[in-house]
């Protein structure tokens, strides 16, 4: 197992960050791309896979989700890992382990009124 190294705890008058080991910040070097992606999808109720966190569509997806009170996990992946998702383009959003799709699918879900109930259903948002 690898863990994030070189991180220090941070404390000031208002905030205390504990950056000690977390199983969500580790990976097994022998874990396949497919199993790693499946594990991440199952561990996070709302997750976006993207080629780059600076991707404009990824940014807009995060912004839309944050306006309704959800802050998704964003994972940068390479071309090989994108192929494991069985989609042709990134970014791609998963809610509650189910693939929603890209930006257009997220907007359609929101405009249809189904986004918030789905986020509540998977425990990512409270009513």
UniProtKB/TrEMBL annotation:
List where in the cell it is found. Answer: Cytoplasm
Q: Which UniProt keywords apply?
A: Cytoplasm, Redox-active center
Alphabetical list of InterPro entries matching this protein: GlrX-like_pln_2, Glutaredoxin, Thioredoxin-like_sf
Coiled coil, from the record: none
Ranges of residues in domain Glutaredoxin = 46-99
Entry-linked Gene3D superfamilies: Glutaredoxin
Domain of life of the organism encoding this protein = Eukaryota
* Gene Ontology CC entries for this record: cytoplasm
The record ties this protein, via Pfam families, to: Glutaredoxin (PF00462)
Spell out the family assignment given in the record's similarity comment.
Belongs to the glutaredoxin family. CC-type subfamily.
Under the heading PANTHER family, the entry gives: GLUTAREDOXIN (PTHR10168)
Record's protein name = Glutaredoxin domain-containing protein
State the species of origin. Answer: Brassica carinata
